[in-house]
Amino acid sequence: MNSLPKIELHCHLDGSVRVETVLAIAQKEEISLPTYDLIELKEALVAPVECASLEDYLKRFALPNAVMQSKESLQRITFELFEDAAKENVKYLEVRFGPLLHTLKGLTLEEVIQSVLDGMRQAEASYDIKGNLILSCLRSMSVESAFEVVEAGQNFLGNGVVAIDLCAIEEVGFCERFVEPIALAKKYGYRVTIHAGETGSGQNVIDAIELLGAERIGHGVFIKDEPTAYQLVKERQIVLEMCPTSNVQTKAVSSYQNHPIYQFHQAGINVTISTDNRTVSDTTMTNEMLCIQRAFATDESLYKQIYQTAVAAAFATDEVKAWCLTQYEAQS
């Protein structure tokens, strides 16, 4: 499974920082950590299988963000994420991050975006992998902050930045607040993917599609309990970026066997597989694929279909998509 080519569409930068790198940057930049023991630090960074909730899971992001406040650290962490992905044969990776989280020590939004872009380009030059960036606006922040992110990223569109996202703690009805900044983003040329239906509300998925024009949905698990959302996703051919291990941890599902991804696929809904957060969920694309394979006794034909779905759904150029398809055929 490790040798098969892979496409990952839903991966958070701050949730995918190597434990060793957190320690190294903290020591170099004199950043205080709760522990300088690698084993204890990993325990602080990796969410347990039994999280109490999504909120409990998200607590793990404070520590990595503390070491993501300089150009050098952002570039390094991005390069290492792409390096880790390339080593398990990920051919195309979309990395998302909230630029505003990395301005605590004076970086501008543009400097943050450029630093992440530099790390991605460095990895593309070193490994057989291609990538793009998704800018995340936090639902826990103001609507004005979303406008700031949209404006800051505008000049990077077509040069590594491809889409806008809304993430963080999910409350019912959040979409209404962000209609205007997302509409502006679409006007500028951003593609749209929205975290919705991760914690209980299928209605949020409906709103993300109808109010915000989402082309893809991050997670979307709870359309299983909302027939209208289910039908809308199916009829509009909206793509779900599903992250099995993360969904088990955050209690979106009780187990891999109870994850709706296979049922959705069989029903004709477009599903893809991603890690969500490689460090916080202590996972890889290979592990996610194996977990689904074991849970549903699937064969490689399912994986090939999901790979093709992910290529088609990628916010990439036709040229990159064609290249990704040839990577799979070369393995067959």
From TrEMBL:
Keywords: Hydrolase, Metal-binding, Nucleotide metabolism, Zinc
Binding site for substrate: 12, 14
Reaction catalysed by this enzyme: adenosine + H2O + H(+) = inosine + NH4(+); 2'-deoxyadenosine + H2O + H(+) = 2'-deoxyinosine + NH4(+)
Cofactor binding description: Binds 1 zinc ion per subunit.
EC assignment: 3.5.4.4
Pfam families: A_deaminase
Root EC class: hydrolase
Cofactor(s) of this protein: Zn(2+)
Binding, Zn(2+): 10, 12, 195, 276
Site feature Important for catalytic activity, where: 219
Active site: 198 (proton donor)
Superkingdom of source: Bacteria
Domain Adenosine deaminase: 5-322
Physiological role: Catalyzes the hydrolytic deamination of adenosine and 2-deoxyadenosine.
Family: Belongs to the metallo-dependent hydrolases superfamily. Adenosine and AMP deaminases family. Adenosine deaminase subfamily.
Protein name listed in UniProt: Adenosine deaminase
Organism, scientific name: Candidatus Enterococcus lowellii
